[in-house]
TrEMBL record:
It holds the Pfam family 2-ph_phosp. InterPro entries: ComB-like (IPR005238), ComB-like_sf (IPR036702). It comes from the Bacteria. The keyword Magnesium applies. It is an enzyme of class 3 (hydrolase). It catalyses: (2R)-O-phospho-3-sulfolactate + H2O = (2R)-3-sulfolactate + phosphate. Keywords: Hydrolase, Magnesium. It comes from Phytoactinopolyspora alkaliphila. Its cofactor is Mg(2+). The keyword Hydrolase applies. This is Probable 2-phosphosulfolactate phosphatase.
Amino acid sequence: MGRPHSQDRAQVRLEWGLAGASAVSVNATYTVVVDVLSFTTTLSVATDAGIDVYPYRWRNASALDHARKHGATLAVGRLEARDSENAAEVSLSPQAVRAASGLRRIVLPSPNGSTISVELAEAGARVLGACLRNHSAVADWLSARFRDSPGSAVAVIAAGERWPDGSLRPAVEDLWGAGSVITVLRERGVTDFSPEAEAAAAAFGAVRPHLADALMTCSSGRELCEAGFSGDVAVAAEVDTSESVPVLVDGRFVDAARHAGQSV
């Protein structure tokens, strides 16, 4: 008998944050990390441009060493980039990555989506990154593998944000993003969902007709808009504009199409 919190009776599972990821990724064939208003939207923009993305837990001296080791640019925080006199600095902002020139490798530290990705990979999971921009592409990639391996399972992780005390703040935009992937899996013929996954799909279905407005007015969207980053929210709302499927291979996210001949 499996552990109750693992949702291991279902082919498609859904949980929140790092602890949730650890619980539901057990025996999952793939894990999909969703961090809509930060990491995975920026990740999708980067992989669209052919940029390799190295996830990292925190931006500190070790992150700089990690970037130097891989010949990569280390991203700074949005606010740090906004207030910097160095106009060339790249931040954890999809707009900033889209506007940057000459980037080939970038280290993107974050306490949520990036950290979860690193932790899952270190535990042996096969990790993908999804957001609203590429949710159909990710779901199509997964459903093709489910057809080849009917016993496969996927754990979809809504990254969430952090309250000031460091505890998890469930962020509704990540629920919508996770639900968008799950919805397309259902449309492609997948039928075995945990109740948690069903709830995420229902949440996406409810908000789908007015998704762009909801992203702007949800708590995380308002926070970004009031800090001057409404453009990042607009990029996050570019539903199904990306065909990239970021997979974490050897410590870096790359588009699956570039590694079609490798086991991912």
